[in-house]
Amino acid sequence: MILDELVMKNFRQFRGVQRIIFASEADEGGKNVTIIFGENGRGKTGIFRAIMFCLYGERCLSQDEGVTHKELYLVNSPVLQEATSDGEPVESYVELHFRHKNERYSLKRSLQGILDGDEQLEQLGPVVFSRIQSDGNTKNYNDPDEIKRIINDVLDRNVKEYFLFDGEKIQRLTLSSVEQKREIAKGIKNLLNIDALEKAIKATQKLKKTLNTELGKRATDEYKRVIFQLNELDESRDILEDQIRQTEEEQYHADVEKKQIDKKLEECKEILHLLKERTGTEEKLKYEEEQAKNLLAEMKTRTGKASLMLVFKTIDHVFGSIDKKKQKGEIPSEIRKDLIEKILTEKRCICSREILPGTESFNQIILWKNKSADTDLESAALDMWRYLSGIRNHRDDISGTVETLLLKYANCKNEIEKLRSKIENLNNQIGTSERKDTADLEKHRENIEEKLIKLEAKRINLKADLDILESDYERLSEQRKVLEKEENIKNELVQRAHLAEDTCNALQAVYDEFTDEIKLKIADEANKYFVQLLDKESRETLRSILVKDDYSLQILDRWGKPFLANISAGQRQIMSISFIAALANIAASGKILEMPLFMDTPFSRLSFEHRKNLIEMVPGFCAQWILLATDTEFRKQEAALLRKNNRWGKFYLLQSDGPGITIIKERVVADSQYILSDSVEES
Amino acid sequence: MSEINELIKKKLESFPSDVVTLAMEAIEKSEKGLPEASVTEYLENVVRKIIRNRRSEE
Lengths: 683, 58
Fold this sequence. Notes:
heterodimer, A: elongated, B: 3 helices
């Protein structure tokens, strides 16, 4: 595919009809480089988007991650605003003229835009596609599926990213996820025709099976039995291969899931210490809260005794008073009142001497009686003295305990406050990632690991069963040949079945040999370009590119260690370009592949030496090089290098013509020395 | 890509000519994006033709 001309009408920033004619090898002097130069925001990516939209109907590019179709406007907004007063929709289209294998193609995809209040609505219009065949006849196509199929034949959707890419994103080829690696493998298989080979093997397998089934129906005796068994083995092989495929598919998905969990865990790792600290703090808080609760309960049980502390002064006073009387001997009184009353009633002393009323002794006893206190009162006072004495003895204990409990409780509350504030602080540091439950993730990961081990064991067993089946099949096939020889069976159907089987085996053998060779060949070719494109310093660090079994890339350092994860973005870009060049070279069997290399923002991550190497080499190994460059990456120095190798054919400037409007102006290449700046600072 | 087909064809050279013919037909039809069943159906006719030719030559 060679791009000839791009015409846009009211598409993105490009108001009205604007066009770009691309330089290609077929032009005079073999100039095949086109530079489309513009500052950021002028619409370079709009041109890339126009080509993707026209070829594949794609509105969003890989760089539009997170942007929905509705949010992305393709119709020029200023034109739409002006048209609102007329209430007319605005017509927009992209037209692409290209060549492929001596045929010319013209593809036009249109859309209409209209404003509904503040909302810009866009509706896809018809696709017009025509093909001018090598004999000069023109064929027009209307069926969208057929158009899609033809475009896919010219440049497969899976391969397009190798030839039409955003310079910033090209390193994705080397950074890709498992799913992207699959897509890349699919693309490589398509580009190198490996997928057609796989399909051919499947078709001949099916043919062989159909013919053998037919043969089984017509055969007799022992030969029938052998054919029948072979067919059965064929069926079993299909089932086993299906099971192996399914198991591998499950392994693949489990692996993808494991990698996603690893990624999440990796993100959690940064806050893992904080999460651990928070868990520890939360446990401490729980303990302290429990302690506080227990202390409070203990304090409640001691409330009764503790209330005595309120009347300690009164107790001291009462105790003191009674004790004073006791010390004086007033309590208990020396002679008990009831004893005196008994003497007076019986008129006889305890010594049996008679005491008569009116006598001095009797009067003296009456005097004693009056002096003596009430026995109940004395007893009560003494009881109180003893009780208060007991309280006084425990006073220190009560106040000591209460004081200790209060102190402990206060400390506890203090600690709780501190812990709560610490948790709040930790939560702030952890932020939104708080929701990631690492423990759950780790558990889930363990389960997946276990599943992967089981799946691998299942796969190995299935493979072993398949090996046994293959050897049975081989044995029966030999038996079949012997029987055919002995019984002279060589009818047409048998010969057809044999041809199908031999072809199927031959294709499988070629496939195995071809895919092994092609991986080595891609690596060899990629290394040739890599060494030439790399700057001197990188050449000393990096040894070679390796193409793995799944067609993903690896790079080895000078000691032969895998080094992909450690190379710079610029080195990744060079590695990807080397890989693309190798693929193109192999796909064209050493000639120049008829494909454009379309690069948006090609040099932004590259050192000057890398830029120089690319400028000197790329025009030689691709049929057409189209660069969408900005002022910070394409300066007088780069332009001078490009002019020097005499491959620069077309030069366009993207210039502002008011807000949201860009016009495309063609300039002669020689003007670049006046237009471009000397350095980044000047631009 | 026809260049790749040439490479595959070269690898098939060591096989009998009928096998090469059928294999190349299978690849070429697979390249055209036809469904697998259609390719198989087409190949069935090719096989029939090859064997009939072979038998008539014998």
